């Protein structure tokens, strides 16, 4: 009878799976906490007033406006602008007229500008026109290059007294999901300051 080798007869103790489950549990809790912190950071906002128009921008937005125009870049890289303009003498109370006039003006100023949709909204009790638009960023490189940066955005146009406020939210096409997520929050935060008599 042949002698059996000690290496063949001795077996290691079974590995405890409870340690593996604990590590997995800790990893899942850490991921959940990270997700909650990110959601909180994304929903945090800070108030901004431009002329008589108030809104809530995402916290830690970087302001950069010039020439009477307020502009800010959000932490996600989206561009928010508020441009106060003189209100039109006619058609200022019709949001679709405002949106159409703005689309014509932007079509003359921006490369390959096109309106995707036109809609109506409200800021408090004031009607507002809304444009969804796209254009090619002329500064994104050689116009004849095969890769051009397409900018996709929204504009809201609303009058108050003798002012027309144009609220713009736009970003490169690759960030369109972020624009769509922020736009309703931005529009819902809009308020006009009460003028004390």
Gyration radius over CA: 27 Å
Structural class, please?
A: alpha+beta
State mean pLDDT (0 to 100 scale). 83
Strand order of the largest sheet: 3-4-5-9-8-7-6
What's the N-to-C terminus distance? Answer: 112 Å
Low-confidence stretches: none
* Percent in strands: 35-45%
In short:
This protein is α+β, with helices and mostly antiparallel strands.
Please provide a written account of the structure.
Strands 3-4-5-9-8-7-6 form a seven-stranded antiparallel beta sheet, sandwiched between helices. Strands 1-2-10 form a three-stranded antiparallel beta sheet. It is of the alpha+beta class. 29% of the residues lie in helices and 37% in strands. It has helices at 6-9, 18-43, 95-109, 176-188; strands at 45-50, 53-58, 62-63, 70-73, 79-86, 111-123, 126-136, 150-160, 163-172, 191-192. It has four helices and ten strands.
């Amino acid at each position: 009878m042949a002698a059996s080798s000690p290496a063949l007869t001795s077996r290691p103790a079974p590995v405890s799976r409870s340690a593996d489950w604990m590590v997995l549990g800790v990893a899942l809790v850490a991921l959940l906490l990270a997700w909650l912190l990110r959601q909180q950071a994304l929903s945090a906002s800070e108030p901004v007033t431009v002329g008589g128009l108030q809104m809530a921008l995402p916290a830690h937005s970087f302001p950069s406006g010039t020439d009477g125009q307020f502009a800010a870049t959000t932490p996600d890289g989206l561009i928010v602008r508020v441009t106060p303009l003189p209100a039109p003498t006619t058609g200022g109370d019709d949001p679709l007229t405002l949106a159409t006039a703005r689309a014509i003006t932007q079509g003359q100023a921006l490369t390959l500008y096109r309106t995707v949709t036109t809609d109506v909204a409200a800021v408090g009790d004031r009607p507002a026109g809304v444009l969804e638009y796209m254009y090619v960023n002329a500064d994104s490189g050689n116009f004849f290059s095969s890769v051009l940066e397409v900018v996709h955005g929204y504009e809201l146009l609303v009058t108050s007294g003798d002012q027309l406020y144009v609220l713009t939210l736009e970003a490169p096409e690759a960030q369109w999901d972020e624009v769509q997520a922020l736009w309703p929050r931005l529009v819902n935060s809009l308020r006009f300051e009460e003028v004390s008599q």
